[in-house]
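<purpose> Linking amino acid order to shape
<body> The protein record starts here
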Amino acid sequence: MQYDVAVIGAGPGGYVCAIRAAQLGFKVALIEEGTVGGVCLNRGCIPTKALYSATKMVAKAKQAEAMGIEFSSPQLNLSQLAAWKQGIVSRLVGGIEALLKSNDVTLLEGKGRLDGAHRVVFSTGDTIEADRVVLATGSSPMELPGFGFSDPNVWSSDDALLLAEIPDRLLVIGGGVIGLELATIYNRLGSEVTVIEMMSEILPGVDLERRSLTLVRRALTTQGISLHVSTAASSIDGSGEGVVVKASGEWAFEADRVLVAIGRHPNSEGIGLETVRIEPDKRGFIPVDRDLQTVAPGVYAIGDLIGGPMLAHKASAEGVKLAASFAGEQRTLDYDMIPQAIFTDPEVACVGFSEKRAKQAGREVTTGRFPYAALGKAQGMGEAEGFFQVVADARSGRLLGAQIVGAEASDLISEAAIAVQNGLSLDAIADVVHPHPTLPEGLKEAAENALGRGIHTIQR
């Protein structure tokens, strides 16, 4: 069968690319050996955030007494929680399948691999031909030497999201985004959680201000999560009851289960790269040019396969950009301007440049901050911890970046993202009338402070 475009991998990059290409008039085949939606929908973003939302109710229940509301302690039905989470995933999977069908995308089930630049062969022996092939095979959890996922005591993030059990003691190796999000969830579910991170700070690799990291670290500790930085796991002993993990600094951590969350690696093996002379780099990422083209004519790659932030919305944006390019439309994608949301408690979200990074780039900047504690809505929610921060060019007032640490930061960052990506000024945010009482007022107030005209905080 001959197609204009064949996409290998139906994750948030692949299926979006396939649908947009079909909307632009191309005959498209989408190849997936598992379930559409990829890691994000099935074993990542969606189940994690569903559990984050569910367990947030447990955390809020503990705060209710201070508000004058008392009821018995929440009871956990683990199997029902797991089924509820899976129900959400299944409904969204069905929605994507319906979208593919309505857009005339041919969904082909099976493992596909390149067999030359314009040919895809399946494990069944069937083949298809395509003028363009898009590689969108995503990534998988990284193993730590000596802590293989074949050990029943060692979990990957996939295992943790199955909700097979709630261990009394959970040791999380890795204080990055995945590790801290799952630590938050399991702490709420009742596990005694310890997190160890080999780097000198949590959330390494995320461009966050020192005050943001300090606030998150303090909040997690207050919630009962034990954090140890500059601590690298070295060995695991499961010969006794539970396991003992030895780490640098002569640390020995006892646990019932160990979650390894040290990052993800691209799924670049076994997809036929050698047949078109594509050589991944030493980390397994596929090199592409600014148009997402590999060294092989007619072969493209997007998403986690090509490095950069491993974010679903980044992969989707690349999918849209690539499909548009097939139709002759050139779109730019500024990776510095892609927002990120982290679902710890409090939430963390950022877009653009931090103050530190802007200064390192030689920019003269002005900043403005506004605390959640000064927002009536946040006080009424019992969510007064956190702050808004904006960073702008000191001369033009153009917004360069924003960080939000606090309740619903993942939703609030979008207004800042629009401003940053469109080169808007502090005035553009400050002069917009925001409804009261709401959380988005915090961004307006931070912009007012940067302009030296804040009303609801003391100007210094």
Residues 78-102 form the longest helix (25 residues). The first strand starts at residue 2 and ends at 8. The chain has three domains: 2-140+265-335, 154-262, 346-450.
